[in-house]
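A reminder from the course coordinator: this example appears on the midterm review sheet, so study it carefully.

Given structure:
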């Protein structure tokens, strides 16, 4: 590009991240820093998201510290959500939960959703149930979240709670929407878009598409 500004650099970093090219995103981010361009809050969200999608835990931790100490950027919920997601993908579920508990800002659904997903994936039911209870209080109108909560309750055998969730959805006339699911294959976490057709206690059918 003839003219390179903050937006163009950020767009490229984000594109690398969504394509699973985490190391390319890291290299481009380092080049951006050396170019003298200021890295703003949005740029760090794109970079940290790229690290999360590629499982680059060390790079993410280093640059999170860089963001707060060198650039004096106060972390927003988007930054913490990326951090929680990355720690969860690395099976550091307890550490991810600790990050949420120590956040200087109030609880938000965007950090509980990725934590709940990995708890279900790795059968961390103790933390998963805590995440589900928090998410239930925070997201009263999101049908996709209700499905996630219902799934973890079902896995824990809390069938009365599953019935309660379904009754609330019916009463509020919430339609079941596509939700994101994670599955681990050969130590690699893949993300699926699942369309929930029916959930009833112990019986469930889905159509899944890998992203």
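Designed residues:
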């Amino acid at each position: 590009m003839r003219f390179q500004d903050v937006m163009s650099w950020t767009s490229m970093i984000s594109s690398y991240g969504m394509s699973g090219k985490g190391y390319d995103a890291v290299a481009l981010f380092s080049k951006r820093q050396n170019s003298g361009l200021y890295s703003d809050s949005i740029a760090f969200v794109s970079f940290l998201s790229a690290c999360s999608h590629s499982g680059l835990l060390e790079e993410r931790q280093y640059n999170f510290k860089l963001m707060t100490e060198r650039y004096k950027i106060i972390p927003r919920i988007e930054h913490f959500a990326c951090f929680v997601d990355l720690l969860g993908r690395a099976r550091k579920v307890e550490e991810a939960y600790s990050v949420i508990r120590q956040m200087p800002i109030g609880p938000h659904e965007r950090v509980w959703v990725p934590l709940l997903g990995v708890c279900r994936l790795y059968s961390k039911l103790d933390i998963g149930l805590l995440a589900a209870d928090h998410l239930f209080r925070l997201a009263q109108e999101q049908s996709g979240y209700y499905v996630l909560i219902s799934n973890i309750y079902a896995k824990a055998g809390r069938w009365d709670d599953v019935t309660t969730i379904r009754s609330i959805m019916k009463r509020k006339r919430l339609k079941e929407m596509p939700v994101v699911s994670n599955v681990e294959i050969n130590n690699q976490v893949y993300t699926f878009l699942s369309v929930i057709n029916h959930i009833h206690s112990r019986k469930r059918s889905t159509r899944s598409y890998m992203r």
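Residues 195-211 have pLDDT under 50 and may be disordered. Strands lie at 179-185, 188-200, 203-210.
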